[in-house]
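so i finally got all the pieces together for this one. its two components total, 610 residues if u count the protein bits. some of the lines might not be protein, just check the labels. i wanna see the whole assembly predicted at once instead of chain by chain like last time, that was a mess tbh
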Amino acid sequence: MQLKTKLTNKVLLYSLVAVIIVSSIAPFVWMVISSISTDIELLSTPPHWIPSSPIFDRYMALLGIGGDRVVSRIGPSFQLSITAFKCGVINSLLIGILATIICVVFGSLAAYAFARLKFWGREKLSFILLGTRMTPPISTVIPLYLMIKALNLMDTRTALVIIYASSSLPITIWVMGSFFQTVPKDIEDAAMIDGCSRLQALVKTILPLSAPGFVAATIIAFLNSWNELFLALIFTQSNASKTLPKVISEFSTAFAGIDYGLAMTGAVIATVPPILLALLGQKYIVKGLMGGAVKG
Amino acid sequence: MKVSIFKPRTDSRRWYTALDWDKVNGKLFPYYLLAPSLIIIFGLTIYPIFYSFGVSLLNYNLLIPGKSFAGLGNYMRLFMDSEFWASLGRTLYFAMVSIAVQITLGMIVALVLDQRFVGRGWTRAIVLLPWGVPTIVNGILWKWIYQPNYGALNGLLYQLGFIKQYMQWLSDPWLAMHMIIIADTWKVLGFYVVLFLASLQSIPSDIYESARVDGASPIRQFIHITLPMLRPTFLLILVMRTLETFRVFDIIYALTQGGPANGTKVIGYMAYEETFRFLDFGRGAAVSIVITLLVAAFSLLYIRMFFDRDVQFS
């Protein structure tokens, strides 16, 4: 009797786990399948769940492998979207990396001040920091638009780098600050007794010890800009600055009709970096984003 | 301790030798560190919020030349507009339904993943995967899944016999709202599961043991131990989710663009449309100020709840 309930419990548990895994992965799988299905298969009713002759032309075209032959096989009308996509990858990488560097460099200095030093206005400033972290982009976008326009930075990467850096900075400071606090103060004191200045102590003891915080902050800041669409819609127009999310959004709205095959291919490519980063830094990111709110 | 990053050369003939520069620098050191960040945050977040308020007091439409002072005119017109209240209502509805669904599902999944089974670590990683997907990718992916003629959802439900004919998932305002919530839930659920898991694991196991010794059934243990212990996590998700609803944009942009019949136009999307589609900056700014105030109110609640006591930088 006992054995039997134990067995049914096991079966129940594993089937629940199976349901959870399948529903987490199924949309991904469908995204990949759609990206390698032929147009005929994509437009069949009922859907062809498993492509009979998978094609990788779209990947080759979007990643710039195989040249014009591949593009002409997909259809010359997609030439514009393909070019836009390639520019989007480069823009997104450049903007993401630059914004992240600004965030992490400036953010770590500020985080150190908040985590370690006593100064006038500290409480108020950390409160303001939290407040700005919650501010949605819509609250600031109109003045930013007017400022960027006045500075003649419309449709430039520079505009997005500045804006993304400012929007990720509060959370970067917050995440790194909470990691800095976990480094014992004695180590830093010891370094200073041995003749390090405070700045040297920061660079030589705290930074290496709070490496997880850096990983978390870097990933969060990069993903914020890699995934951002709203501001990109407003501040970019041409291939000179369009980011990947904007290009992908155009796959479904602007260009010659909707080609879901190409859209899904773009989607897969855009998803690979964040998924990899999320997997690599999972532990740290979650810890960082929770900000100590739930102790685990 | 000596701090000297901006220490001037000592020159006995100059006035500043009277100052103890080490001491001054020591006092100012924190501000040196903070300066770059504060300049960026004040210049690009805080100042624009006030600037936004200024714009909201203007008659300022890019389609009509010139601008003039409007006082609270934009706000008055906004509060008289039923579409504004409707979009606020939709935002609230979106928040409530998604919170209810995501808390319930998140907790169930977390409870399952808290059990012992083969491949538990992998499963936890897999559950968090959708959270890494860019929101616009999530939007376009679900647009394809919901596609009425060739979409996977129709195909699957039809083949399994759940529906007799293909459905138009995004053509009915009410249905579209719920389809968006489903798509959104798929993306964010993993994060809540991880939050729940973390707090489940922080419950000391001896509480369960003594409850078991006292003869409490698993269900009673759940009601009297697990649920109360998860309370902080519930509150956290409640506030986080509410705050996030004001940011929801990408998925609506990709799936419905606020339609059909404005059925999915939440307040954030309304602010975007008023400003960048109808180019009425004054009115758009007024909507964004309303959002800012609502977010500020919820943020205060959030800060009070979680950061006042133990986690403030101290």
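The first strand of chain B starts at residue 58 and ends at 60.
Chain B touches chain A through 106 residues (CB under 8 Å).
anyway lmk what u think
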